User: Which sequence fits this backbone?
């Protein structure tokens, strides 16, 4: 009986085990912050991509939103400023929506366009997910998700797979979409046109999910001019350490970064099929464990797996090395991508790493340090009265810039 | 093991609650009261019918995950769909989004809670 209760109690505390230790290494509780966490702002709230493979578009959206809010001094918490993830994703292959893709290509294509993106308030991604009107009559598995429902209607129209061709009644198909996806605002005429004018399923998805009224230029958001970057390029060679260093420099320059990672290894330690994922990085800090005599660089992940994922994974703080390593299981080029202001020159920067032995003095200093609010995010050398320079804040000192 | 969790779930109830909003394009919003039932974030209907709701949460259908087929999307959402649930994206007051799995009889459970419990 005692064993029963012990197991029971253990099981209660083990409900919230991490979904994936790989590649999101969150480290144990013995690791403490040894630098002030730097979190890049502005940043929009955490989004959820549901089961649809548009992670690369969500990462791109996050970075574009942050850039736009910063450059135009907008409030990124205001839903009116959110960009449509569907429209951003459609830049991967212009005017089509495809599961799986490359964030850098989205950036490049937007950079070379008029840089006008539909707003999320007009093209709500969540409307695509909530499509059920009657939960008591659960539909067939392959018809439940809005995205899949649309694909099925396209297949019916074209007579693809087991579906009997139904191109004789486009109005019937469009009507079925309106009935089953009541939250999608695309007008019925546009839906009908999407069937008859599309050359591929991806084009059909784009045309049926982005209502024409949301694509009028005066209703769209303008993105200030930017340059798209990625590392390593196709002519460059780099390893996980080089990518981690680049990420560090970018984040310390207040530039958020997208990284492509592998979420699952196979039994040979290679990346499993269909395990590619894309996440955005919005913060950096160092943590050390005096017990393990070990320090690590942690980055703040913004994952499109929804806010519960963030809360269950150390608020998104993950070991940078584990992400960089997993990225190289997936690809050798374009592991990271970002956007920057034209003319910006990236200078190599690194966190002023603390040794484990200085851990206690750092923590003690911070606890009673009284750092003025305007310097809370500053990490580096402080200039003090006279010719004194210190690496930890002391009253009367200012950041050395 | 799952019945042990069920046993304790029925004994203890965490009354902490939060409000989530379900926004539609027409501007209307539906409030869903989320409460915590031990490890799970669930809605009021689930709390009211604990036994039936927890049976659904603790006894997913056959295959646990479909990782080998498709992990392009959120694995917790995929798991929900695979188990005859319907995904819904809810928002908190700060507009952070959450994936919820809507099971039979409109029982809402956080998709990650559902996935983590059954993933092994």
Assistant:
């Amino acid at each position: 009986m005692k064993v029963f209760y012990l197991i029971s109690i253990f099981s209660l505390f083990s409900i919230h085990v991490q979904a994936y230790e790989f590649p999101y290494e969150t480290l144990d509780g013995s690791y403490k912050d040894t630098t002030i966490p730097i979190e890049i702002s502005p940043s929009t709230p955490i989004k959820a991509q549901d089961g649809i493979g548009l992670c690369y578009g969500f990462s791109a959206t996050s970075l574009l939103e942050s850039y736009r809010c910063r450059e135009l001094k907008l409030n990124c918490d205001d839903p009116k400023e959110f960009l449509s993830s569907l429209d951003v994703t459609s830049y991967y292959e212009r005017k089509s929506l495809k599961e799986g893709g490359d964030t850098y290509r989205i950036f490049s294509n937007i950079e070379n366009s008029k840089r006008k993106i539909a707003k999320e308030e007009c093209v709500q991604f969540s409307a695509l997910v909530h499509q059920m009107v009657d939960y008591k009559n659960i539909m067939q598995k392959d018809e439940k998700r809005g995205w899949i429902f649309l694909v099925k209607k396209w297949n019916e129209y074209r007579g693809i797979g087991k579906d009997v061709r139904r191109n004789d009644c486009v109005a019937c198909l469009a009507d079925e979409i309106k009935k089953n996806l009541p939250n999608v605002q695309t007008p019925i005429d546009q839906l009908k046109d999407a069937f008859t004018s599309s050359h591929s399923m991806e084009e059909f998805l784009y045309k049926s999910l982005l209502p024409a009224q949301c694509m009028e230029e005066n209703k769209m958001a303008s993105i200030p001019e930017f340059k798209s970057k990625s590392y390593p390029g196709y002519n460059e060679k780099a390893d996980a350490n080089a990518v981690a260093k680049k990420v560090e420099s970018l984040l310390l320059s207040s530039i958020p970064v997208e990284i492509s990672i592998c979420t699952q290894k196979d039994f040979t330690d290679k990346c499993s099929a269909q395990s590619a994922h894309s996440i955005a990085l919005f913060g950096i800090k160092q943590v050390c464990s005096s017990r393990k005599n070990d320090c690590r660089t942690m980055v703040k992940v913004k994952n499109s797996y929804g806010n519960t994922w963030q809360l269950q994974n150390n608020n998104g703080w993950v070991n940078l090395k584990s992400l960089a390593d997993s990225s190289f299981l997936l690809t050798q080029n374009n592991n990271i991508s970002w956007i920057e202001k034209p003319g910006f020159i990236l200078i190599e920067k690194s966190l002023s790493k603390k040794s484990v032995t200085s851990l206690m003095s750092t923590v003690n200093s911070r606890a009673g340090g009284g750092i003025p609010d305007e310097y809370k995010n500053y990490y580096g050398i402080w200039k003090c009265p006279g010719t004194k320079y210190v690496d930890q804040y002391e009253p009367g000192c200012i950041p050395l810039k | 093991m799952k019945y042990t969790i069920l046993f304790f779930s029925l004994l203890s109830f965490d009354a902490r609650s939060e409000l989530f909003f379900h926004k539609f394009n027409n501007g209307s919003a539906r409030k869903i009261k989320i409460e915590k039932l031990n490890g799970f974030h669930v809605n009021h209907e689930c709390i009211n019918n604990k036994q039936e709701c927890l049976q659904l949460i603790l006894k997913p259908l056959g295959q646990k995950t479909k990782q080998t087929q498709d992990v392009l999307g959120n694995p917790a959402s995929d798991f929900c769909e695979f188990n005859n649930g319907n995904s819904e994206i809810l928002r908190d007051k700060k507009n952070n989004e959450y994936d919820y799995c809507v099971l039979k009889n409109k029982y809402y459970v956080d998709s990650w809670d559902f996935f983590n419990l059954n993933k092994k």
